[in-house]
Structures are given as structure tokens and as C-alpha cells.
């Protein structure tokens, strides 16, 4: 006879029976909580009729978190990302063995009872009272499904997960009411389908399709009976019955499920015994989650796509809303990444810069006229180990990058374009000495800039003007561009730069200082590639885009951000810059970047102390930026070995130039090779100088000798700088040598 509590009253078993009776009378059959012997003593308010009625009637079912696939522009998979590795499939795509196995082991009377199994509850309570603890539960599949919905809604928040799984009377009664609603609205088959898609099976696999792929590398519809039984057995305790780490325990659990299937006549005893004799044979497919698993070095591009999603209002008004959509997954994101271009970028990087080098490189490729990002890579791989990083060296800080790098002389074409837009002629000359101070004052958007005695010099002492714009650009003459920005002012330059998408990588505004002409303000490679694409498209700037289309979890297209194209400069200005920058790769500082059999243009850049070197260039159908340097801005690129080659000094045309050439050559292999629209830029007319010499007398030739005599050099005629010209020839044809005549005037 059951014992009474000390002090009299009902026994524990009687207390439990009374609790069940209260629940039944209230119209809510008690959820099959795995109730310990003393569990019925403290009934919560939710166990009363009044409390039960106060529970909201509608269960809000969140969309299930699923895998998101990120594809290149040809449909190839770049990476799979997820908060929950799950692929939702309909019931018909699940093995019948699996459906029977899960019902047999978890809720064998599933098709006979309603939302709750009262018979199972009484059996479990009796068992638990006898055991003096929690020995058996009696939650139906429907109740388990409701609980999993709460867990899914909690996401990765540990506090919310704890609340969703807490074993309290109030929580169980709440689950019960929702279970009743679910039974009424969905029906048994849909509940089973939802349950098998939401349940956790261990090894980061949620839902039967992900679990089947994880353990057997096959679809859930193809599972054999022994495989289905193994998965069904995992649900109760994915860690305890994990076949990877606990194979013997998993085998016993699998065989228990097989026997249970035989007991309820889902399979014959003979089939069960045969299946029990089959050893567990796994074909593990390891989790490959996140951008770190991206192919062809596209991990940073993959990260960039995620940042675009999280920051663009197209995907939600707030960052929280956007993050929720991304984390729920189930998206198929087709990007702009061109696999040919990406492969070429990676091949070029590996050829020229090693990941263990003291400096790194980053390359970005953009399509002119569309803004599509075609390639993005860097020498420091995506990862957490030595010589690896999670910082995207190609993009701005807000998009997962760093604070940027000074672009050096690659900024000069923007200054030249601003000057042309202001009416300056491309033949404009300046004295351009080797060394000078910045002129002062210089007009800015905020008033005059006044700073005396700020020196600037050219790379080589031989670079002494006067120069016109074409020669100054080809030779990258600093003092020319200082004088140019001093004439037009800083404001037109920063305004045009903004139109071309150029902003500081740290998000701050471009500073109103004349030194901007020499590229002193930090930017990212993607920014520079996009800016130079403006020249390639004859003056039209298009904002970079990385996403072409997205199919949502409901298989319907989603809105995606579009590139915004606008005219930044006139076609005439762009054509003039194209002409200037063609000269850079043909006979200027960028000859090592020049392409074979294809029109190209570009500009080199090297910063003070050689902390960074650049080549930014383009063809009519592609624009690319290459940066080389130390991301921490510590290592100067002098006396340095990069990619196995030693360099006393690194120049923009010397290391970044060949990287650009190889990357772009491969990216455009087999593609059309259009030409540029160019203009004629005449060499500037220089002021004539005056010569002052006459030729000397030639020596007499020997009689009959046909060789000329050797005359004394004639006086030099003046050139455009007032220097002397060349002298005349000496004697000839065996006669007395003629007087050499120096030209008296320059051109």
C-alpha cells in the first residue's frame, strides 16, 4: 500500500492522479511530462482552468533555419553557410523506413491518440513514481514538435534556449495547448513531416535530410531500414548515441529501434534480425559551413556578400531584421563572381606573392558599366591560423575590411579628370622642378588652405620640367600634380572623387588638403577598381554589386540591390584620361603591366616610405586594382623578398603591375578585345632657345679618297629650353671638309 506523506494527506501517486484529473476537467489533457515522484506537489497557476485559458491560442511557427547556398554567376557553388545545417524536404522525400522508425521509437500510438497520449502519461507517471525519479517520458511527437518550435525560435541565444527547454509545469501546459492547436490545424502527416525537418540529429545536422547527408552521404529518401533506425535512435540523445564517437552505444540503440519496429509490426521479426546483423557503416560528409570553405579563394568575396546582405535596406529595415532573414537561411544567392576571373586572380596571386611573405596583396576586379564584382582575392588566406586572416583586404572597414591604404599616384588620374572638367587643357604645362613647396594658399570647399613650407619632390632628380599633362602622367611627376591641384583647387577633386565612388575606407570624409593629389588618404582596392571603371565606361560610374538574384526559402525571387549608374564626367574627359593612361603602360611607369594584343590603360602608385604599392588599370570591359603592402603599415618595402624575388625597392609597376597583368590576362582569355575611344593630345610647344655656335672646319680629305674628312663639331643650335643644338657634319668626299652649321634656333 502506498505510503502517505508525513503529516497525512494524499500519497504522491494520488497527488499525480489528481493533477491529471484537473487537467482533463479543464479541457487540456496534461502533457506527458517526465514527472519525478515529487513533481506533482507544486502545481503552477497554469495548471488551472483560468491559467490555461490565458495562454495565447496561436502558435507562431518561425521559418526553419536552413542552409544558404552562395553561387557564382554560372551557378557553381562557392560556399554553403548556415546557422542550422538543414534542408527542408517533403514527407515523400523521406524513406518510409525512417517515418516508421521514428514513430515506433518515439510515439508508437501517434496515429491513434490526439495531441496527448493519456494512456502513455499514466504509464510514465507510474513508472517514474516506482523509480523515484525521471525514468520515462510520455511526450507525443506533436508535443515534441511544439517544443522544437520554441527552441528554433530561440535561435542561438543561450538564455532563450534555456527558457524553451525548461522542465516546468507552466511550460508543459503551454506546450500542450499549442499541441492541441497543431493537431487540429495540420493533421498527422504534416506534423510528422515538420517534426522530421526540425529535429536535431547531432553532428550539426538538423532535419533528416541534413542528417542523412552527414552520416551516410545520401538523400533521406534513399535510407535503408538499418540506416533509418540509426537516425531515429539519435533523437532521444544525439550525443549519447552518436555513431561517430560512440559506435557501440549507437549500435545497441539502433537495434532497439529495429526491435521496436518489429514489435509494432512495421517490419517482420526476420527483417529486424537481418538488419541487426548489419554493421554500422558510415560515410561521413563533414560539415562545410561558412565562407571559410569557399572554393577558389573566394572566402572573402563570400564574406562581402554576407556583409552586403546585412547592410542593405533592401533585405530589411533594420540590421536585426536582415540578420534574422540571413540566419534563417534557405536562400539561393547567385552572385556576380566570374569563376574564370576568380581563378585567374588566385593563380596570379600565388605566382607573385606567398602567404608567408612579410607583405600581402589584394586584388579586386569590377566590370565597367555594370558595377559587377567579378573577382576578389588576397595572398593571406581566409582562416584563423598562421599567415591567415579574417580581414578582407579588398574592401572598406564597414564591409569587413581594414582602414585602407594610401593609393599614392593612382589618385592622380582623378585629379587630372577634375582639371579637365574645369576646362584645363591636357597640354597644360608647369615648370615641375625636382623639388618644391606646395603653393599656398590653395582653395578648398571650406575656404583657403594655408600651410607654408610643405615640401614635395619627384621620385628621381632627373624629373625636371617643364612638363605637359601627358608626359607628367606617364612619368608620374609629383610636382606637376601639386601645381595642377593648386590651380583648380581641392574642392573639384573631392567632388569628382565622390561621384566616382571614392571614399575613405574608414568611413570618414575625404580631407580637404592639397596632398590628396598624391594619394595620401586611405582607400580600398575595390574602391579604386570601381573608380577606374568610370574611365573605362567613358565617364559613367556604377556602384559595385555582388548579388545578381536570390531565391527565398519559399522558392520565390527576392528583391536584390541594383547597381546605380550615373555620369561622373563627360565622355571627352574620360577619353582624354584613357589616352593619358594608355601612355603609362606603353612607355611610362606601367610598362610591365601592359597587355598583349589588347587595349589597356592604368596607373602605378607608390606611397611614402614604400608602405604600399599599387597598379590600377583597365580595359574597355574590365577594371582591376592591385595593392601590395603590409596591412599593419609597419614593413617598408625596401630590401625585401616577395614571392621568392628580391627587391631593393618596390615600385607600383614592378610588383603590382605583373600581378595585374597575369590576373587580367587570364580573366579576359577568350573574351572580346574592344579598343578605347582616344583623342589626340599634341606634345606641348616649348619656347625656342637661341643657339650660338658655328661648325668648325673639316679636315682635308686625301686626293681621291671617298671617305669624308673629320670636321670639328659645329656649334649647337638652341632647343626649347634654350640649350644648344647639334653641330654640323665634317668634311666629305675627299675634299676639304665643309663647315658644320649649327642651328641657331630651337624648334
SSE order and pairing:
Elements: H1 12-25, H2 49-54, E1 68-71, E2 77-81, H3 96-106, H4 118-131, H5 141-154, H6 158-165, H7 169-186, H8 188-198, H9 208-216, H10 225-234, H11 247-263, H12 269-276, H13 299-311, H14 319-328, E3 332-335, H15 339-352, E4 360-366, E5 373-378, H16 412-421, E6 435-437, E7 442-444, E8 447-449, E9 455-457, H17 469-475, H18 478-488, H19 491-499, H20 525-536, E10 540-542, E11 547-551, E12 557-558, E13 565-567, H21 571-587, E14 601-606, E15 612-619, E16 622-629, E17 638-642, E18 645-649, H22 656-667
Parallel strand pairs: 1-3
Antiparallel strand pairs: 1-2, 3-11, 4-5, 4-16, 6-9, 7-8, 10-13, 11-12, 14-15, 15-16, 17-18
Helix pairs in contact: 1-4, 3-10, 3-11, 5-6, 5-7, 5-8, 10-11, 11-12, 13-14, 15-22, 16-18, 16-19, 16-21, 17-21
Give the key terms.
single chain; disordered N terminus; alpha+beta; 5-stranded mixed β-sheet; elongated; 5-stranded antiparallel β-sheet; 747 residues
- Helix fraction bin: 25-40%
- Tell me the overall shape: elongated
How many strand units? 18
Strand order of the largest sheet: 2-1-3-11-12
User: Helix count?
Assistant: 22
Q: Brief description of this entry?
A:
Helix content is 34%, strand content 11%. By secondary structure, it is an alpha+beta fold.
Describe the overall structure.
This protein has 747 residues and is an alpha+beta fold. Helices cover 34% and strands 11% of the residues. The chain contains 22 helices and 18 strands. The chain has helices at residues 12-25, 49-54, 96-106, 118-131, 141-154, 158-165, 169-186, 188-198, 208-216, 225-234, 247-263, 269-276, 299-311, 319-328, 339-352, 412-421, 469-475, 478-488, 491-499, 525-536, 571-587, 656-667; strands at 68-71, 77-81, 332-335, 360-366, 373-378, 435-437, 442-444, 447-449, 455-457, 540-542, 547-551, 557-558, 565-567, 601-606, 612-619, 622-629, 638-642, 645-649. The protein has a five-stranded mixed β-sheet, with helices on one face. A five-stranded antiparallel β-sheet has the order 5-4-16-15-14. Strand 17 (638-642) and strand 18 form a beta hairpin. Helix 3 packs across helix 10 and helix 5 (141-154) packs antiparallel against helix 6 (158-165). It is elongated, with a radius of gyration of 39 Å. The termini are far apart. The model is unreliable at 1-50 and 688-747 (pLDDT under 50).
Amino acid at each position: 500500500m502506498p505510503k502517505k506523506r508525513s503529516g497525512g494527506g494524499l500519497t504522491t501517486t494520488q497527488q499525480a492522479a489528481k493533477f491529471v484529473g484537473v487537467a482533463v476537467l479543464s479541457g487540456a489533457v496534461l502533457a506527458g511530462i517526465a514527472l519525478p515522484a515529487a513533481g506533482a506537489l507544486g502545481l503552477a497557476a497554469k495548471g488551472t482552468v483560468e491559467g490555461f485559458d490565458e495562454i495565447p491560442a496561436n502558435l507562431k511557427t518561425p521559418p526553419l533555419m536552413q542552409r544558404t547556398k552562395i553561387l557564382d554567376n554560372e551557378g557553381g557553388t562557392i560556399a554553403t553557410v548556415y546557422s542550422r545545417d538543414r534542408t527542408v524536404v517533403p514527407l515523400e522525400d523521406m524513406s518510409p523506413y525512417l517515418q516508421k522508425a521514428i514513430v515506433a521509437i518515439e510515439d508508437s500510438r501517434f496515429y491513434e491518440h490526439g495531441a496527448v497520449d493519456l494512456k502513455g502519461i499514466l504509464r510514465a507517471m507510474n513508472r517514474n513514481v516506482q523509480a523515484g525519479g525521471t525514468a520515462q517520458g510520455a511526450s507525443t511527437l506533436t508535443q515534441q514538435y511544439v517544443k522544437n518550435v520554441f527552441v528554433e525560435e530561440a535561435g542561438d541565444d543561450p538564455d532563450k534556449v534555456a527558457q524553451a527547454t525548461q522542465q516546468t509545469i507552466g511550460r508543459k501546459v503551454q506546450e500542450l495547448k499549442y499541441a492541441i492547436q497543431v493537431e487540429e490545424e495540420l493533421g498527422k502527416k504534416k506534423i510528422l513531416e515538420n517534426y522530421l525537418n526540425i529535429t536535431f540529429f547531432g553532428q550539426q545536422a538538423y532535419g533528416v535530410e541534413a542528417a542523412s547527408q552527414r552520416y551516410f552521404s545520401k538523400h533521406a529518401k534513399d535510407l535503408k531500414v538499418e540506416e533509418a533506425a540509426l537516425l531515429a535512435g539519435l533523437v532521444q540523445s544525439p550525443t549519447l548515441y552518436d555513431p561517430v564517437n560512440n559506435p557501440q552505444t549507437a549500435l545497441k540503440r539502433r537495434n532497439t529501434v529495429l526491435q521496436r519496429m518489429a514489435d509494432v509490426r512495421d517490419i517482420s521479426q526476420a527483417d529486424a534480425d537481418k538488419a541487426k546483423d548489419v554493421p554500422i557503416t558510415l560515410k561521413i560528409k563533414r560539415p562545410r559551413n561558412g565562407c571559410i570553405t569557399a572554393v577558389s579563394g573566394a572566402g572573402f568575396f563570400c564574406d562581402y556578400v554576407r556583409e552586403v546582405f546585412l547592410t542593405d535596406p533592401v533585405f530589411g529595415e533594420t540590421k536585426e531584421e536582415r540578420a534574422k532573414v540571413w540566419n534563417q537561411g534557405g536562400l539561393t544567392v547567385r552572385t556576380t563572381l566570374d569563376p574564370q576571373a576568380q581563378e585567374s586572380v588566385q593563380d596570379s596571386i600565388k605566382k607573385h606573392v606567398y602567404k608567408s611573405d612579410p607583405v600581402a596583396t589584394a586584388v579586386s576586379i569590377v566590370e565597367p558599366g555594370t558595377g559587377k564584382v567579378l573577382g576578389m582575392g588576397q595572398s593571406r588566406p581566409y582562416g584563423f591560423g598562421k599567415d591567415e586572416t579574417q580581414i578582407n583586404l579588398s574592401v572598406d572597414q564597414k564591409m569587413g575590411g581594414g582602414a585602407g591604404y594610401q593609393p599614392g599616384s593612382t589618385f592622380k588620374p582623378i585629379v587630372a579628370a577634375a582639371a579637365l572638367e574645369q576646362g584645363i587643357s591636357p597640354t597644360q604645362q608647369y615648370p615641375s622642378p625636382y623639388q618644391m613647396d606646395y603653393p599656398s594658399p590653395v582653395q578648398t570647399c571650406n575656404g583657403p588652405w594655408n600651410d607654408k613650407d610643405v615640401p614635395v619632390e619627384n621620385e628621381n632628380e632627373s624629373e625636371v620640367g617643364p612638363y605637359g599633362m601627358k608626359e607628367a602622367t606617364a612619368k608620374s611627376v609629383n610636382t606637376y600634380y601639386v601645381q595642377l591641384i593648386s590651380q583648380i583647387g581641392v574642392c573639384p577633386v573631392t567632388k569628382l572623387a565622390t561621384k566616382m565612388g571614392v571614399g575613405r575606407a574608414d568611413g570618414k570624409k575625404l580631407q580637404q588638403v592639397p596632398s590628396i593629389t598624391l594619394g595620401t588618404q586611405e582607400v580600398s582596392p575595390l574602391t579604386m577598381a570601381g573608380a577606374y571603371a568610370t574611365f573605362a565606361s567613358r565617364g559613367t560610374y556604377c556602384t559595385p554589386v555582388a548579388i545578381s538574384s536570390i531565391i527565398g526559402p519559399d522558392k520565390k525571387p527576392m528583391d536584390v540591390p541594383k547597381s546605380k549608374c550615373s555620369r561622373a564626367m563627360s565622355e571627352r574627359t574620360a577619353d582624354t584620361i584613357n589616352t593619358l593612361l594608355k601612355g603609362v603602360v606603353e612607355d611610362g611607369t606601367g610598362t610591365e603591366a601592359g597587355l598583349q594584343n589588347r587595349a589597356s590603360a592604368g596607373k602605378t602608385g607608390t606611397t611614402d616610405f614604400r608602405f604600399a604599392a599599387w597598379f590600377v588599370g583597365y580595359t574597355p570591359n574590365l577594371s582591376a586594382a592591385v595593392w601590395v603592402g603590409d596591412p599593419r603599415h609597419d614593413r617598408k618595402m625596401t630590401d625585401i623578398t616577395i614571392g621568392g624575388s628580391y627587391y631593393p625597392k618596390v615600385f607600383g609597376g614592378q610588383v603590382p603591375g605583373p600581378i595585374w597583368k597575369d590576373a587580367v590576362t587570364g580573366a579576359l582569355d577568350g573574351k572580346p578585345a574592344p579598343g578605347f575611344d582616344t583623342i589626340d593630345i599634341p606634345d606641348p610647344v616649348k619656347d625656342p632657345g637661341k643657339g650660338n655656335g658655328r661648325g668648325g672646319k673639316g679636315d682635308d680629305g686625301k686626293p681621291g679618297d671617298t671617305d669624308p674628312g673629320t670636321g670639328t663639331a659645329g656649334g649647337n643650335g638652341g632647343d626649347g629650353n634654350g640649350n644648344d643644338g647639334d653641330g654640323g657634319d665634317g668634311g666629305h668626299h675627299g675634299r676639304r671638309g665643309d663647315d658644320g652649321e649649327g642651328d641657331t634656333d630651337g624648334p
